[in-house]
Specification:
Blueprint: H1 2-5, E1 14-18, E2 27-31, E3 34-37, E4 40-43, E5 45-50, E6 54-58, E7 68-71, E8 79-80, E9 86-87, E10 101-104, H2 111-117, E11 118-121
C-alpha cells in the first residue's frame, strides 16, 4: 500500500476481473500507470486515502468516472444495508477479504452491487 501511495502502481499490474459468473461484471487491465477498460486507455492518478481504509485512484481524462478504490487484504468494504445504514463491521461484505480488491464506485453500495463491481487480480 505504501508503494501505491507513492504513485508506484506496478504491484497492481495485471488483469482485474469481477467474480466469474456474475452478470454485468467488469474487467480491466493495469499496466504501469495506465488502466485499459473496454479498449480505452486512461492514466491512473493517485488521489489519496479514501474513507474506510481504501486508496483512491482516478482517471483524469474521464472526470465523471467513478474512482478505483483499492482495499487492502483484511480491510472490509463498507456496505449500505436495507435500512440505509453503513456497515463497517465486514459482516455484510461479500468479497474475499484475504485478497487485495479494486472497486469502481462513487459511493457506498449494497451487497449485490459490491459483489458485481469488485475486481480481483487474475492469477
Amino acid at each position: 500500500m505504501n508503494q501505491i501511495l507513492r504513485g508506484d502502481f506496478t504491484s497492481l499490474e495485471g488483469i482485474w476481473r469481477s467474480q466469474s459468473g456474475i452478470d454485468n461484471g467488469i474487467q480491466f487491465l493495469i499496466r504501469e500507470n495506465c488502466v485499459l477498460i473496454d479498449e480505452k486507455r486512461y492514466f491512473l492518478n493517485l488521489q489519496g486515502r479514501a474513507p474506510y481504509s481504501g486508496i483512491y485512484l482516478t482517471r483524469p481524462e474521464k472526470t465523471a468516472a467513478a474512482p478505483l478504490i483499492i482495499y487492502p487484504k483484511g480491510v472490509a468494504i463498507p456496505i449500505i444495508d436495507d435500512l440505509g445504514r453503513i456497515d463497517l463491521s465486514g459482516g455484510l461484505d461479500p468479497t474475499d477479504q484475504t485478497k487485495i480488491r479494486i472497486l469502481m464506485a462513487q459511493s457506498v453500495l449494497n451487497r449485490e452491487e459490491v459483489k458485481r463491481l469488485t475486481t480481483y487480480l487474475v492469477e
